Amino acid sequence: MPSTRPLPTDSIVQSNTHRFKHYFLSDRTESVAGYRRIVEQLAGDIAGAISRAQQPYSGTSPADLRQQIAALDRFPALGRPLAEVIERTRALVLENNISVYHPHCVAHLHCPCFIASLAAEMLISAFNQSMDSWDQAPAASMIEQALGEDLCGLYGLGADSDAVFTSGGTQSNFMALLLARDHYSATRLGWNVQRCGLPPEVGRYRIVCSEHAHFSVQQSASILGLGSDAVVTIAARDFGEEAGALNAAIAELKARDLLPIAYVSTAGTTDFGAIGDLGALADAAHGHGLWFHVDAAYGGALRFSRQHRHLLAGIEQADSVTLDFHKLFYQPISCSVLLLQDKHRFRYVRLHADYLNPQSNEAIGLIDLVYKSIQTTRRFDALKPFIALQHVGTEQLGEMIDHTIALARAVADGLREDARFQLATPPMLNALVFRYLPTADLPDAAIDAINSEIKTRLLLSGRAIVGQTRIDERAFLKLTLLNPMTELADIQGLVATIRTLGAQLEAEQIEPPGGPMAAAHDSEAACHP
Fold first, then answer.
1. Residue 1 vs residue 152, higher pLDDT
2. For the chain, what percent of residues have pLDDT higher than 90?
3. Strand partners, 480
4. Phi, psi of 320 (to 5 degrees)
5. From start to end of 425-524, where are the E strands?
6. pTM given for the model
């Protein structure tokens, strides 16, 4: 009879190890060869999909996509060969993606990527370093720290500044407002939020921003325990911020015994690219004792523009600055940074864990970057701009940005001269907001319906990805011209398509959506009776 005795533990381990090895990238010859084969296959698949694409989206309907995904066995008990899995996925993903490099992909602050940065992504993923401790990412930690210091210098934040990379502008803004909240609590109230929680006065805290600020300001206030009602917006003239309105708003809040703690200035609003006078806004905020944060996720790249860098004058006075590299720096998502004027203010998130970043590490020069981040495990995203900026150079990056702004202004000139379009405002950066105007005298609701349907039909046909927004409750279209490879003829052709489609929808007499607005959910009730 065969023995029923269990195998020795070392035999089990040896057997398992042999079976597991081919799934991982390692120093084994077979592993490296397998990795090389799959990378080459994917590179060919991606190149083929790009060369075949004639429009920014395939036009596959949402229902068809759901059906294709539902047909996949997503949790098989026994795995399949990787080449087979990639082939099945390729048909779904590569043929139904949004092609950000296409000149008619113009809806969002969504950029094409430098090849240099895609190469950096391979290094990041292959070595899977985490940026929380030096012993997980030695050179990477030093590179991120050096790049952060360089950025602080480029934006004039001074010798005591520092930076931390984040997942995006939303997280950078959140961190800035977290630090602003805790700094106010510590310096004005003598209260340690990190140890004691929120102070009794927190219900009086207020964050001030423009009516066109990014939604992450309200979101951050909610998560930080202040509530979105703590965000006070000021009106913007011609979509830009004014120091006079800021001074008046702060004075009014203080007169009501409220505690304004921070002002968030948006250097490049999402819809219009508007930038206020940052120097005057900084003086107003600091004059009233507020933390001055500049959300330059969109407009921060103007620092490298020859023609438009003056728009960022005053940014050096900021207490904190958000930059997004996956916009006008042309980096793959995700990649953002928070710059801080006074590095000592990172103490509000600083913690030590014996197993991760013991204080003894600092004495021997090990940089454990977790001390200034709200993330523990974090990608080496700094490598992407680190490599790309060395390859492209800052002068050429600036020329790319200037090209896109010039393109937006040239397209705006054509829209202004066409009776079938209404231009909301001259472009401030490279975003254009406009709407189609019918030949017939139609009510505003009908015009809104036509413009909304233009956007939807272009998307679902795959011909173009255009944006949408609302101004004074009216529907507008938006072209965000981030792509430096786009030519004027490309956008003129898109505008002509929009004009033709608008006339077609006008003839079809598109009806505005009817029915009363849904009642607010209970969770949206007011804070007080």
1. 152
2. 81
3. 431
4. -155, 155
5. 431-436, 465-471, 474-480
6. 0.92
Interval 273-325: pLDDT, tens: 999 999 999 999 999 999 999 999 999 999 999 999 999 999 999 999 999 99
State the amino acid at position 430 in one-letter form: N
Would strands 465-471 and 105-106 be described as parallel, antiparallel, or unpaired? parallel
Give the domains, in start order, of the chain with CATH numbers: 129-391 (3.40.640.10), 395-508 (3.90.1150.10)
Give the whole-angstrom CA distance, residue 32 versus residue 30: 6
The 10 Å CB-count burial string (b at 16+, else e) for 286-297 is: eebebbbbbbbb
Tell me the one-letter amino acid at 387. Answer: I
Q: 339 and 157 in contact (C-beta within 8 Å)? A: yes
Q: Is the dihedral of CA 388, 390, 394, 398 positive or negative?
A: negative
Residue 30 tokens, joined: 């077979």
Phi, psi (rounded to 5 degrees) for 79: -70, 170
Q: What order do you get walking across the sheet with 431-436 strand by strand?
A: 105-106, 465-471, 474-480, 431-436, 421-423
Quick one: 466 exposed, middle or buried, by C-beta within 10 A (0-12, 13-18, 19+)?
A: buried
Peptide bond preceding 373: is omega within 30 degrees of 0, i.e. cis?
no
- Of the pLDDT bands very low, low, confident and very high (cuts 50, 70, 90), residue 413 is very high
Picking from 473, 450, 110, the residue whose alpha carbon sits closest to that of residue 297 is 110
CB 207 within 8 A of CB 264: yes
- The DSSP element (H or E) to which 387 belongs, if any, is helix 383-392
Q: Say how many residues make up the chain.
A: 529
Dist CA 225 CA 214 (whole Å): 19
Determine if residue 59 is left, alpha or beta; phi over 0 gives left, psi from -120 to 50 gives alpha, anything else beta.
left
Tokens encoding 156: 């004039």
Alpha-carbon distances, residue 152 vs 171, 398, 455, 473 (angstroms): 18, 18, 40, 40
